[in-house]
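Saturday, quiet lab. Running sequence design on the structure tokens for the scaffold JK sent over.
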């Protein structure tokens, strides 16, 4: 049984809303964990006084310079002792996830058991970096906790001015849209650059991300310094049987409203089926005896909308590879940026292909280490010295397909999404 809980009237208010609250979870932990009890007390003080009472420091494990995020309390009494002693040290271990986020229930239970033994029991699976964040551990328990994680095959991720933990989508393991082996790409890059992750030596942080298709489910284009995104360069594939089934279920009105008119480059149209052979760059599928759907692949920009609306009926082409984009992130000096397209297309199938990707990643990291200012992301460095100088430094030829600004800002408001969607579909909002 844990120590007596503190009064937390302000935190209690966070449980009154319509959504699940982290406070409820912490209170559940606090029933058996003294660290969680005092953590709630410290958080209540922060909410009441509008001040964060944590400071950093230096805490690590043998042989590593990163992976542990230190937190020490500044909330102390007149005697200089912490008011909430059990949470006076509340360090976080940042642990690398498996590529593609593949966990078994047995493995998750082992991770939970280790953290219940050494820490607060508080665990977060980071949605953008993919890290497993084991939050709340005293200094003396950091090394034993790491040893136990390492014993079952896990390693610390990056922290500070270093290569950060990378992530990939589930991709080729189960997704029909995948255009390359995302898990292999992630491991080939990270395993060859572990020193930059474990021993910080960069001007600031650097992130790799790997998405299997332009849907970009891991937000690589806007949340990573080097994004590897699957694509194709031949025609969209069609499955006439599935296309006819979709058309029979949804009808012409839905096809026009949600497929044809939503194409950003007007590459899709419905026309009469005349029996003629379409040009080589046109994907055509018969919807019924009189109508067919055509896609002009010369105008297609791989936005993925039509493939998402008609799953299985439309699929990525067969000539698959990746696009490489550099410099995405919400950076401090120049604001939100999307990655700059520097490699429009490259194959990623053979051992030689993956070696080329590793070589490019190494060149970009070396460029960043040598040219960036302190606390400057690689996108800011490129903005400061010029794209041409960056391309020359990493030995990439200038290509007319390179895109600097796909759009101005990666973020948009979605709080009225359902109402706007209903208007567009001529329906009443639920």
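Result came back. Writing it out in full:
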């Amino acid at each position: 049984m844990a120590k007596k809980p503190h009064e937390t009237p302000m935190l209690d208010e966070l449980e009154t809303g319509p959504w699940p609250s982290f406070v409820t979870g912490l209170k559940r932990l606090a029933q058996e964990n003294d660290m969680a009890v005092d953590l709630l007390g410290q958080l209540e003080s922060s909410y009441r006084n509008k001040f964060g009472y944590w400071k950093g420091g230096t805490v690590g494990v043998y042989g590593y310079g990163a992976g542990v995020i230190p937190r020490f309390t500044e909330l102390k009494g007149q005697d200089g002792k912490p008011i909430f002693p059990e949470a006076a040290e509340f360090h976080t271990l940042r642990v690398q996830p498996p590529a593609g986020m593949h966990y078994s229930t047995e493995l998750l239970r082992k991770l939970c058991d280790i953290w219940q033994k050494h820490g607060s029991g508080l665990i977060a699976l980071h949605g953008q970096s993919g890290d497993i964040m084991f939050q709340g551990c005293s200094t003396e328990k950091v090394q034993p906790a790491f040893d136990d994680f390492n014993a079952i095959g896990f390693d610390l991720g990056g922290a500070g001015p270093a290569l950060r933990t990378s992530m990939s989508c589930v991709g080729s393991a189960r997704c029909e849209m995948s255009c390359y082996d995302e898990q292999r790409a992630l491991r080939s890059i990270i395993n060859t650059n572990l020193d930059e992750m474990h021993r910080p030596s960069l001007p600031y942080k650097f992130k790799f991300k790997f998405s299997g298709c332009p849907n970009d489910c891991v937000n690589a284009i806007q949340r990573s310094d080097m994004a590897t995104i699957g694509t194709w360069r031949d025609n969209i594939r069609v499955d006439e049987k599935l296309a006819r089934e979709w058309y029979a279920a949804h009808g012409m009105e839905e096809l026009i409203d949600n497929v044809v008119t939503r194409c950003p480059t007007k590459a899709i149209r419905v026309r009469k089926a005349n029996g003629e052979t379409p040009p080589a760059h046109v994907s055509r599928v018969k919807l019924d005896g009189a109508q067919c759907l055509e896609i002009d692949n010369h105008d297609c920009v791989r936005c993925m909308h039509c493939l998402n609306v008609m799953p299985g009926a439309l699929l990525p082409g067969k000539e698959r590879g990746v696009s490489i984009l550099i410099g995405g992130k919400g950076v401090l000096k120049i604001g939100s940026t999307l990655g700059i397209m520097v490699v429009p297309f490259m194959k990623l199938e053979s051992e030689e292909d993956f070696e080329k990707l590793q070589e490019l990643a190494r060149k970009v990291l070396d460029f960043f280490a040598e040219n960036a200012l302190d606390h400057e992301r690689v996108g800011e460095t490129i903005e400061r010295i010029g794209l041409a100088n960056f391309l020359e430094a990493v030995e990439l030829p200038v290509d007319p397909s390179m895109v600097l600004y796909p759009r101005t800002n990666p973020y948009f408001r979605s709080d009225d999404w359902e109402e706007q969607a209903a208007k567009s579909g001529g329906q009443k909002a639920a």
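Notes for JK: The chain has three domains: 9-151, 167-232+320-393, 237-318. The radius of gyration is 26 Å. Ask whether to fix the surface positions before the next round.
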